[in-house]
Amino acid sequence: MENTTENGSDLCHLRPEGEMTIYTADELKGRLVAALGQCKELEIDLSQVSEMDTAGLQLLVLAKREAAAKNKTLRLISHSPAVVETLDLCNMSGAFGDPIVIQSHAA
Fold first, then answer.
1. How far is CA 59 from CA 10, 28, 93, 99, 103, in A?
2. 104, part of any domain
3. Residue 28: alpha-carbon gap to chain centroid
């Protein structure tokens, strides 16, 4: 899994690419914790997530909890279909407080 972190003044961007599953959770956890330590605000761009299981969902819950504990802002943006499906399946769509925009694939 590839992740890119871009640091601005107080805002960091993290974009996981590929799977957010039990197989990639440990690596991504380290990147999430590091990003939260570097900035006051963290945006996680989920547009390139191709697969997500409950381990990936647990990472997002962990990130939200850690951001709140450290009085930092966490935003989830650009949810991929795999992310939306997992959030819906686990009835967690509204748990993070971020809008989920569903893209139209009309021809």
1. 22, 8, 15, 19, 24
2. no
3. 10
Better-scored residue on pLDDT, 38 or 97: 38
Provide the residue range defining the domain that includes 6. 2-89
Taking residues 70-96, report their average pLDDT. 90
Q: Report how many domains make up the chain.
A: 1
Evaluate if residue 5 carries a pLDDT over 60: no
pTM: 0.82
Residue 55 is assigned to a structural domain of this protein: yes
DSSP 17-66: EEEESTTTHHHHHHHHHHHHHH-SEEEEE-TTEEEE-HHHHHHHHHHHHH
CATH number assigned to the domain comprising residue 61: 3.30.750.24
**Identity of the amino acid at 59:** L
Pair of tokens at residue 4: 């890119």
Residue 78 lies in a domain: yes
Q: What average pLDDT does this structure show over 45-51?
A: 95
What's the average model confidence in pLDDT over 46-53?
Answer: 96
